[in-house]
Amino acid sequence: MNAPRPVIPDARYGERLARTQALLHERGIAALLVGVGADLRYLAGYVAMPLERLTMLVLPAGSRPSLVAPRLEAMAAAATPLVRTGLVDLVAWDETDDAHAIVAGLLAAAPEPSNQRVLVSDRLWAMHVLGLERVLPGRGLGLASEILGELRMVKDPDELALLRLAAHAADRVVAQIAAGRLIGRTELDVSREVRERLVAEGHESAEFAIVASGPNSASPHHDASDRVIGAGEPIVLDIGGALGGYCSDTTRTLWVTGSNPGAGPTPEFRALFDCLREAQAEACTAVRPGVACDAIDAVARGRITADGHGPGFIHRTGHGIGLETHEDPYIVAGNGEPLRPGMTFSVEPGIYVAGHHGARIEDIVVCGRDGPDLLNESSRDLWVVAG
Ligand code: ZN
Ligand code: ZN
Ligand code: ZN
Asked: How many Å lie between the centroid of ligand 2 and the Cα of residue 180?
């Protein structure tokens, strides 16, 4: 547990920048404008504060990039890998400057033709998008994911190492919660404990801690409530956080028996869970290069539908994961994107019977060269616990 945590080396950011610029050039896009968020962390190694003041990496297709930052953030910006290694110029702006106009000025000074499109990061605030539209009249704006989606989707070995550490940390929390007291406690209380344990196990932040007990287990994104957990009911535990910037996300389903041996899973729930367990395993096993994302969804859905639980599987099978919990590629019908080695995503089918109960099993899976590499290692069986 005390092995040194991998870090993304400085040189990697330069490589990512060069690959991004090559793609922009190839597709006739003038520039990429990246605001605060995961795209900025990916390209510049900069975790900036999300503020109304504009911070923006201005990346023209073929000329020198700049990092535009408010004066009071300039010291933090200067310490980031791309600025420190001299690959990017830091442009600090003062409180009374028009930051959007500064970005427009940088684009005007770049040699790219002004009739080419400009891409903005997908999570850029509307106030900045509108501000940029005002100073860049006539420029078509598009989404950065057009270029960055395919780059961020395929993880390098350092990213995979961090995702694996995060997954194992989350696995330990599941085991700790399952071994602890549950009966008589509220979902909220258990959820708070999950968050504390995620941090204690190495995450810098806990992002979510779904504790869905009894009939609440039928709601996939149930918000932990003041419902008191009892014996003879299921709990869907779906937890995750960020470790070294990379996200964990795992779901296990528990059944709480209490001291009454007759309070074990009902035959109805057991049948539902066994079907889910097989569907999830089959979908994971189907992962290999060249298989389309929607084919993985079809494997899980086909199995669940064949067993008569189809109407209860009300969401897609999974989502990509990396610097964000939900990112490309989405494991959903209609996404014909073929899997490539290094793509990392969740496989998380669920079956929900409103008003009664539900179950979900979620693993983070890497598409390896010869097949699936499951980052989570805790048991996927129904965790029957005394609680
Ligand atoms: Zn979810
Ligand atoms: Zn989840
Ligand atoms: Zn998930």
From this structure: 21
